[in-house]
Structure formats: structure tokens, C-alpha cells
Amino acid sequence: MGKLTLYGIDGSPPVRSVLLTLKALGLDFEYKIVNLREGEHLKPEFLKINPLHTVPALEDDGFYLSDSHAINSYLVSKYGKDDSLYPKDLQKKAIVDQRLHYDSSAVTSAGLAIIRPIIFQDNWEIAQAKIDALDAVYKNLNLFLEKGDYLAGNNLTIVDFHLAAALTGLVVFLAVDSTKYPKLAEWIERVKKLPYYEEANGTAAAPFVALLKSKNFTIV
Per residue in 167-210, pLDDT tens? Predict the structure, then answer.
């Protein structure tokens, strides 16, 4: 196996989804922090790795890849002992891909609409419509979970890593109501019991989550 290097920052949900995948696969890798506030992602040496200057980025023995969805499917396809985390069966794979697209579109859009003004504009007023959009995401995730213990059925897949990482910060703004969305609440607790979860997502996300909780945001 070639040398694996992950470039990222702990506060990023997509980066943490890759950390979860790497840990689930039991792979050895080097983790290099990219300080976005200092503009390290815009420096020539990083632009050679990822011209789009985003994290995460993966280096696999001279091969470079960006976008967490592409990275995680690549890692499982190349290094997985089996295909359970990203199935080869076309129909099972199609369900996983559909959920991944939902994450990259609806979930990411809902999350960025809330978090981007906070991080980049120091604006802690959140429109009720944005919270409603997040609630709609919870509703759909709960719907997905009616067909199994995990988001793409009865088996854990990379989709669960993506959504677990995303929701870690989003629940600060809208807690998951276990009465309203019981399947989603149960899934969150189920994923937290994974042996590598705390290291890859819990501890990694803690400073970012603490920052969000320390601020007095208002819903308007």
C-alpha cells in the first residue's frame, strides 16, 4: 500500500467523514492540518495538491483527490476488505449514491446557510426559514431510516459517516426531537457507539461544537 496523506482541518464535517472512513478501514495515514484562517489552502504547494483549494484532499502515493464523497468511495473501493461500506451491487450502490447526492445538495446547503454567515460574517441571527430547512432535512433522514438501521439500509456505509459528521454541528442549532424523528435519534446514538467514532468525529469536532455553543445565536 502506498503512503496515504489526508489534508484537512478538524472543524470540517467532510474532513471528519474521511477520518471516519480511514478509521473504519483500519488504514495507516498521515493527517496534515491545513490552516484555512492563515490561507494555507491558497499557497502554491497546496494548490498543486488541490487546485480548487478546498479540504479534504487526499494523497495516495502521488495520486491526488479532492471532495469527501469521491475520497471515501475511492478508499473503500481500493482498500476495503469487502464492499460493505460502498457496495458493488448496482442497486445497493445506487441507494448509497442517492444518499450521498442528498448530502452534497440538501444537507450541505442547509448547513452552510446557517453556519457560513456565523463563521465568515460573525452574524449570529438565523432566519427561521433556515431552521425550517434543516428540520426538513431531519424529516427526510428519518424517512430514509424507515428501511433499515442505517441511512442506506441495514448495513453501515460511507453515507452514515458523511451525515454523522454533518449533524454533529447542526444539532447545536436544532436538536433532533426523538418524539418527532425517533429513527434519526436512534441512528445518532447507534453511530456514536462505533469504536472509532469518538476519535474520528467526537473529539475532532469538539472545539468547533464548543465554539458554536459559546455564542448566543438568535432565530429571527
Answer: 999 999 999 999 999 999 999 999 999 999 999 999 989 998 88
Question: Which triple of cell numbers denotes residue 185?
Answer: 435519534
12 is catalytic: yes
For the entire predicted model, the pTM comes to 0.94
Task: Give all strands of the β-sheet with 4-8 in edge-to-edge order.
Answer: 30-33, 4-8, 57-60, 63-66
Catalytic residue from among 12, 66, 68, 73: 12
Place of cell 475532532: 204
Neighbour-count burial of 145, counting CB atoms closer than 10 A to its CB (0-12 exposed, 13-18 middle, 19+ buried):
buried
Kindly compute the dihedral angle of the four CA atoms of residues 147, 152, 156, 162, in this order, to the nearest 10 degrees.
-130
Rounded CA-CA distance 27/21 in Å is 9
Distance separating alpha carbons of residues 170 and 172, to the nearest angstrom: 5
